[in-house]
Fold Anti-sigma factor antagonist.
Amino acid sequence: MELKVSTRSHAGHALVAITGEIDLYTAPHLQSEFTRLLQEGPSRVVIDMSAVDFCDSTGMNVLLSALKRMKEQGGALDVAAPRPAVRKILQVTGLDSVFTVHDEVPQEFLITEGS
């Protein structure tokens, strides 16, 4: 399955919306998007995972790497709206205590066109 990543930045914040499956084959695409985004230096990133059907350990490692780099830059990286299968992976691996996990995308990240 194809992985789609779209990023919207506003006022030092970024919302990364991911659609599809994050696995060994698609993780490099996500990694390169995070690398590009982190060069812009946002203070906070929220990853909208509401359209992610599957995420394996490779995908979790990409998310952890991005979190580590954000913290090194003094920023924060949160996970929002994970589907039950992804939430279960976060819980089983203990990563739900490493990431700040929101049930839905925080209101301040719902950037409307023209704002």
In short: The chain is about 35% helix and 30% strand. The mean pLDDT is 92.
